[in-house]
Design goal:
The structure holds three protein chains of three kinds. By secondary structure, chain A is an all-alpha fold. Chain A contains eleven helices and two strands. A two-stranded antiparallel sheet of chain A has the order 1-2. In chain A, a hairpin with a 5-residue loop joins strand 1 and strand 2 (139-141). Chain B is mostly helical. Chain B is built from twelve helices and four strands. Chain B has helices spanning 5-25, 28-54, 62-75, 84-106, 111-131, 162-185, 187-197, 199-204, 209-235, 245-258, 265-283, 287-301; strands spanning 141-142, 149-151, 154-157, 237-238. Chain B has a two-stranded antiparallel sheet. Chain B has a two-stranded antiparallel sheet with strand order 2-3. The longest helix of chain B has 27 residues, at 28-54. Helix content of chain C is 37%, strand content 25%. Chain C has nine helices and ten strands. In chain C, the strands form two sheets. Chain C has a six-stranded mixed sheet with strand order 6-7-8-3-9-10, with helices on both faces. In chain C, strands 2-1-4-5 form a four-stranded antiparallel sheet, with helices on one face. The chains are: A mainly alpha, B mainly alpha, C alpha/beta. At the A-B interface, helix 4, helix 9 and helix 11 of A face helix 5, helix 10 and helix 12 of B.
């Protein structure tokens, strides 16, 4: 394989992985701290993508769309937690699956009502338009680099918050032992709302920045949701570190799968998952048992 | 007043008799619809065995339904129908084997992990059948002839005849119900019900919990495969959407709406959900919103499902008071 | 000296950096009642989990009648004759008393992979179930739902479920936990009856009961064995007094 071509694929894989991490991190924290399996998490990604499409078309700028859309997504996450997810804390996984499944049906159908079934494109912001010419035939789009950069900044920010702040300490403790956090005198209810809304916001943000890369279409949320489930399973439930490594792994597996086994590209991710679970059933950083 | 399970049994018997009369007076549309619902009911009962029998919540059960449906097409020779005598056992056997392979990994886990793993395996099969041109790709495949039911060179039943197919599926639905009942009353059934109630204690009592879970996973898979086979027999076409996680979610909804405590629950759920769906479709294009609202309300308001008529207790050795 | 039914050698369990059970050597003779005592957090329940196969050990050996059974899963050990009862009552709360014991009794079938014949027609299992119910004195409560039993009755059922598996070696985790004085004395009677044809290892905090029934007492502190011997020796041991018995009385 041509080294430059290889490099480009690595960049693609890492970019996809970083994007996936933004979504999966929220999912894994909601599992870990709220102990709720939220099938509707992918819907926030979908909402982000459609907000980007709609607001960009209105305002002409993706940046304005993000500035306007992000608070909306956070607010929606807040509302969903307060109005529905809250009732699921004490219920079994079965109920959680069913209720969030119902939520997906509603959100998907609402999307179809408002935006229809067409595939939409979102233009790349002007400052990041164009490509870097690497050789005569190979080039790399600037926007992809920008997305990687933005995601990386967010990942670092998230790590800093989780590792150094008091809030981060509660989050870390909460994903190991929820009762313990309660004993520390933390308002767990508020922590849960915060984590859920932040997770929703991150997923929506990912949907917004990804919109110019991968057009906006119905069902976009479910595909990403299941990939993120795979990431959470590989990384171990509740583990941010695990989710990060697993996201990069999945991003690279997907990218290289498309080259190595084009006909079965979509399966490569699942093959990686099966292999890792054979070796460690609880995931890379999951607690045994 | 809560009807007793005995009354529920009589109601079920009456429903079966009523169903058996349907082809005598109903038109094609209803015969078709009810045939489809009955194969869905078999599908839902197989998942019910897994969920309320062993406590295993699978969100990938459609993979076995899809496999069963595809196997009918793949096993059918060109230019004629496949004999049902070997196609059905072969389908159920192959699907059970596939369930053993995926189950070997999935059953090691529990709770959220199990849900996500089954979902992931289902999606993996979806992509296999979606992307692989040999298996028809995203358009799916058609089969020209329905399976044949012959003995000694004469045709016993023609599945091309709608009422005949209806009766065959009705018979298999009743048979599935009785078979699952038999299973649950046998030592195996008590074992998996015990595992659902308290896995750790069952292990300490000398039960190889993993083996029992794996076997029930394979059985549920095989029955779902049968349901898929019947579906493909009815429609003579299959497509990758049969594997999709929406289907898995839908059948899980049937099981839960029907209620986890009554053995009849999944079948009731299948009839209720599909009929509600049909009614809503007739009213509005955006019926999925209504289904979503219906599901959320049902979950919040009826935590124990529509058929929460039987007691908590899984089997009855003696006449026990409801709450001692 | 009677043959050892159960022997451990340097049995160790680590959880990350924490050593919960630290090089424990134990010898339980046939027909013996062997009590394990020690303060909370001494690693007694973890030790029982290692013995019963609920947890795999990090190091050391376990032998049962001279056969190496280290690391065998709980269900295999159960079939060899290990019976385990739990500190926190671990029954099937939605099932009746009879159904609870049934599951214990049915586990002695060569296999429960039997799919056709109704379970209730298997006479041998029914007989074992009734026997276990009678042994723990719950014969009259067979049809009660387990969750509706009193605490003491649930503790009896906890033992009954285990006894229905016809074990030869009983590993009991605080059989008297939370019992009234009257219930405790009934339990002591039951343990005395059981010792006639079982070997018992029990964890217990009720010192009167321990000194009443135990042949050998092993004292654990911080995961390790502090002392082991007949009750009178343990009662007199200075180290035990300091480390444990004195502390309990003060508390």
């Amino acid at each position: 394989m041509d080294p430059l071509f290889f490099l480009i694929q690595v960049l693609n894989g890492v970019q996809y992985g970083l994007l996936l991490f933004l979504i999966a991190s929220g999912l894994t924290l909601v599992f870990g701290i709220l102990q709720v399996i939220n099938l509707a998490h992918g819907s926030f990604y979908m909402i982000g993508a459609y907000l980007a499409f709609w607001l960009t078309a209105r305002s002409g700028s993706l940046w304005i769309a993000i500035l306007g859309g992000l608070p909306l997504a956070l607010l929606l996450g807040f509302a969903v937690e307060r109005l529905m997810i809250r009732f699921l804390y004490k219920r079994d996984h079965l109920t959680q699956v069913l209720l969030t499944y119902g939520l997906i049906l509603i959100l998907n159908e609402a999307q179809r009502l408002i935006f229809g079934s067409d595939v939409h494109g979102v233009p790349v912001p002007e400052i990041f338009a164009g490509s870097i010419q690497l050789t005569d035939t190979l080039s790399y789009p600037v926007y992809r680099l920008a997305v990687s950069g933005i995601c990386l900044i967010l990942v670092i920010l998230m790590m800093v918050v989780i590792q150094t702040t008091r809030l981060g300490m509660y989050i870390r403790a909460g994903s190991v032992n929820r009762e313990m956090v309660q004993l520390l005198g933390v308002d767990v209810q508020r922590l849960c709302t915060l984590v859920f809304a932040a997770g929703a916001g991150l997923a929506a943000f990912a949907g917004m920045v990804a919109a110019p890369l991968s057009s906006v279409y119905p069902g976009i949320g479910e595909h990403i949701l299941i990939i993120c489930f795979v990431i959470v399973v590989i990384g171990g439930i509740g583990s941010i570190k695990g989710a990060f490594i697993a996201a990069l792994l999945v991003g690279l597996a997907d990218t290289f799968g498309k080259i190595a086994v084009p006909e079965f590209a979509s399966m490569s991710v699942y093959a990686v998952m099966a292999a890792i679970l054979l070796w460690r059933p609880q995931g890379l950083f999951g607690r045994a048992g | 007043m809560t009807p007793t399970p005995r009354i529920l049994g009589w109601v079920a018997l009456a429903a079966v008799i009523l169903l058996a009369l349907v082809p005598q007076f109903a038109d094609r549309y209803y015969i078709q619809l009810l045939t489809r619902i009955m194969s869905s009911a078999i599908f839902a009962m197989s998942l019910g065995l897994l969920v309320s029998g062993a406590g295993l919540v699978s969100l990938g059960h459609a993979m076995f339904f899809g496999l069963g449906a595809y196997l009918l097409v793949l096993l059918s020779p060109a230019g004629e129908g496949v004999s049902i005598w070997w196609a059905v056992p072969a389908t159920m056997g192959i699907v059970a084997a596939a369930a053993l392979v995926t189950g070997a990994l999935a059953v090691r886990t529990s709770g959220i992990y199990f849900i996500m793993l089954t979902l992931a395996f289902g999606e993996m099969l979806f992509y296999l059948f979606h992307d692989w041109k040999v298996l028809g790709g995203s358009d799916g495949i058609y089969v020209d002839f329905r399976p044949t039911v012959t003995a000694f060179g004469t045709t016993l039943l023609s599945l091309d005849d709608r009422p005949t197919l209806f009766y065959v599926v009705l018979g298999l639905m009743v048979a599935t119900y009785l078979a699952i009942g038999m299973l649950l009353n046998a030592p195996f059934g008590r074992t998996i019900l015990g595992i659902r109630a308290n896995e750790q204690r069952m292990e300490a009592l000398g039960y190889n919990v993993y083996a029992y879970k794996l076997v029930v996973f394979a059985m549920a898979g095989a029955i779902a495969g049968l349901a898929g086979f019947l579906y493909a027999t009815q429609y003579r076409s299959v497509n990758p959407e049969l594997f999709s996680w929406r289907e898995s979610g839908l059948v899980l909804m049937m099981v839960i709406l029907g209620g986890l405590r009554a053995r009849l629950g999944p079948a009731i759920g299948a009839f209720a959900l599909v009929l509600v769906e049909e009614a809503l479709q007739a009213l509005t294009d955006n019926w999925l919103i209504a289904i979503g609202v219906f599901v959320i309300l049902a979950v919040l308001l009826l935590p124990n499902g529509l058929a929460d008529l039987a007691s908590h207790r899984p089997w009855r050795d003696r006449k026990a008071p409801q709450h001692g | 000296m009677a043959d050892a039914v159960l022997e451990t050698e340097a049995l160790t369990k680590r959880f990350g950096g924490l050593v919960a059970v630290d090089g424990v050597g134990l010898r339980v003779a046939a027909g013996e009642v062997h009590a394990i005592i020690g303060p909370n957090g001494a690693g007694k329940t973890t030790l029982l989990n290692l013995l019963s196969g609920a947890l795999p050990p990090s190091g050391g050996r376990v032998r049962f009648h001279g056969r190496d059974v280290t690391g065998l899963p709980a269900h295999r050990l159960s079939r060899l004759g290990f019976g385990r009862s739990f500190q926190r009552t671990n029954i099937f709360p939605e099932f009746t008393v009879h159904e609870n014991c049934w599951l214990g009794a049915q586990s002695r079938l060569p296999s429960s992979m039997r799919f056709v014949r109704p379970a209730k027609k298997i006479a041998a299992v029914a007989a074992r179930t009734d026997l276990a119910l009678t042994m723990v004195g719950l014969g009259g409560r067979a049809d009660a739902v387990a969750a509706s039993l009193s605490h003491g009755e649930q503790r009896q059922l906890e033992l009954g479920v285990m006894l229905a598996t016809e074990p030869t070696l009983l590993l009991l985790d605080e059989p008297m936990a939370g019992m009234s004085a009257a219930e405790s004395s009934r339990m002591v009677d039951l343990l005395r009856r059981l010792r006639r044809d079982h070997t018992l290892v029990l964890i217990e905090h009720d010192m009167d009961a321990v000194f009443a029934v135990a042949d050998v007492i092993t004292v654990m502190v911080n995961g390790a064995v502090l002392a082991s011997g007949p009750p009178e020796k343990i009662r007199e041991s200075r180290a035990v007094q300091d480390a444990y018995l004195g502390g309990t009385e003060a508390a």
